[in-house]
Amino acid sequence: MEIERISPKQLRLLTWWCRRKTRDRDVIICHGSVRSGKTLFMGISFAAWAMSSFQGCQFAVCGKSIPSLRRNFLSQVLPFLRKSGFVLKEKLSENKLTLACDGRENTFYLFGGYDEKSASLIQGMTLAGVLMDEVALMPRSFVEQACARCSVDGSKIWFNCNPEGPGHWFYREWIRQAEKKNALVMHFTMGDNPALSDRVRRRYEHMYSGVFYRRFVLGQWVASQGVIYDFFGPEYLAQPPAGEAAEYAVSCDYGTVNPTSMGLWARYGAVWYRIREYYFDSRVQGFQKTDEEYADDLAGLVGGRSLSRVVVDPSAASFLEVLRRRGYPVIKAENDVLSGIRITSNLLKTRRIVICPDCQDIIREFSQYVWDEKQTDTPVKKNDHAMDDMRYFAVSVASPRRDVFAAVAVSR
């Protein structure tokens, strides 16, 4: 990996721990927009600081999960360290890295902080430092336990993240109380990354809207408010190309008292079109349907087409079983709402999923699907059934396959 140019802010991140004005800080917090270079330069700086300050010590490098940590962080940092003369030895089975340089050697353990149980994995260690990549996605108990492990004299804590809402515990407890924590806070934008071309920067700006634009492009800790897909309009409607699709799939949000919504999706090249839909509201119709009747309705929606997948609301256990017995290739939908909305928004804006004009129920819900003013980052649970089935489809089918998060223990 070649680094041709470095911005003043990136240079400051590389050297903060040895600068007279900032070297006595115990914590560094880098937050801001995506693609601003903060992840790579924090990793390089962390390794340089650790190897120049300690010998024979233990460190922790933490991510939301071990796979995401390897993909998003280590894949950027390790090639540069190797090229810079560091000798790396990795034990995948132990999630352990050993770095050697200039006669010094230190050990770096990898951790995934997925849920509240993750805190027990790092408990009992003695660390000279910890780096937490995407700390805002980790549970507070895990972060506090990792920080408590840094008891070696001269140890420092390194955080980076993209913003969430202003009520997020990390923003309130660390960024807003930086002086109390003796922390150096650095805010990054895409303009701080000279490796990012104007064309790529504009592409990222066009990918996000509303709250996600303000968080991931402007790097602001802002509250969610208003219509969720605020960019959606008639220009996002289109008919599919002529001819047979390469693949068909169905997404379903199941309800008994609440409405049931299903969408039939057809893939042409890399684009999925919602070509037909089904929507049944028992309150409006005055009667409820059984699982078998919904399965019959799904068959009618499909119209004899061969399906690659049927993505169903994970809470609909009985309906899932009925579909399995009928031979459908059923999968349970992933149901992380906020992440799913972000992924769906990106796919809509980049025209990877397209809504056909005849799908009037989902078009109606686009204008009614809003953030709950009383709860942070939570949609109002109303007019959300087609929105949910679209989100299930976007995350589980249309988006690149994501890792399953898991917290992994290390041998000590």
Structure in words:
- The structure is a single chain.
- By secondary structure, the protein is of the alpha/beta class.
- The protein has 14 helices and 14 strands.
- The chain has helices spanning 8-15, 38-53, 66-83, 119-122, 140-148, 169-175, 198-207, 210-216, 282-285, 291-302, 317-325, 337-349, 360-366, 385-398, and strands spanning 27-32, 58-63, 87-91, 96-101, 104-112, 129-133, 156-161, 183-188, 247-253, 260-268, 271-280, 309-312, 330-332, 353-355.
- It has an eight-stranded mixed beta sheet with strand order 3-4-5-2-6-7-1-8, sandwiched between helices.
- The longest helix has 18 residues, at 66-83.
- The protein is elongated and about 70 Å long.
- The two termini are 32 Å apart.
- Mean pLDDT is 92; it is low at 402-412.
Summarize the helices and strands and which ones pair or pack.
Layout: H1 8-15, E1 27-32, H2 38-53, E2 58-63, H3 66-83, E3 87-91, E4 96-101, E5 104-112, H4 119-122, E6 129-133, H5 140-148, E7 156-161, H6 169-175, E8 183-188, H7 198-207, H8 210-216, E9 247-253, E10 260-268, E11 271-280, H9 282-285, H10 291-302, E12 309-312, H11 317-325, E13 330-332, H12 337-349, E14 353-355, H13 360-366, H14 385-398
Parallel strand pairs: 1-7, 1-8, 2-5, 2-6, 6-7, 9-12, 11-14, 12-13
Antiparallel strand pairs: 3-4, 4-5, 9-10, 10-11
